[in-house]
Amino acid sequence: MPENFYQRLIDKYEPMTEAAFLTLVSVRKPIKSEDIPAKIAALTDNKLQLGLGTLFTNLHAMTRDYLMTEQVDDDDVHTYEITGSGESVLEAEYARLKLLNQICENEKIQE
Fold first, then answer.
1. pLDDT in tens, 25-35
2. Among the four 23, 41, 73, 82, which has the fewest Cβ within 10 Å?
3. Structural domain 3-106, CATH architecture
4. Which InterPro entries match (predicted)?
5. How far apart are CA 34 and CA 22, in angstroms?
6. What is the DSSP code string of 28-60?
7. Distances (CA, A) of 103 to 10, 100, 107
């Protein structure tokens, strides 16, 4: 896909909300929709949870924007997986978060 397509997606999603970031990270490997809340809980040591409305809004929007694919089997089980576009958006957000982390370290902002 053309580079400007990726840049348009990056511009649309950056800066990402925590909910969008966690949703996208959780689908880096194929995962059933019913397993995503537990994946997010595991990623955040149970410190962050997404409401189902927020989660499914993000899944729908990100599927529509080609950041992930959705497969539906005969039993109506939905499985999601990140796309190359989604990885590009995630990498851009990682770079942004890395910069913010560096600022925190430089300014000696601590826990």
1. 999 999 999 99
2. 73
3. Orthogonal Bundle (1.10)
4. WH-like_DNA-bd_sf (IPR036388)
5. 15
6. SS-EEGGGHHHHHHHHTTTS----HHHHHHHHH
7. 22, 5, 6
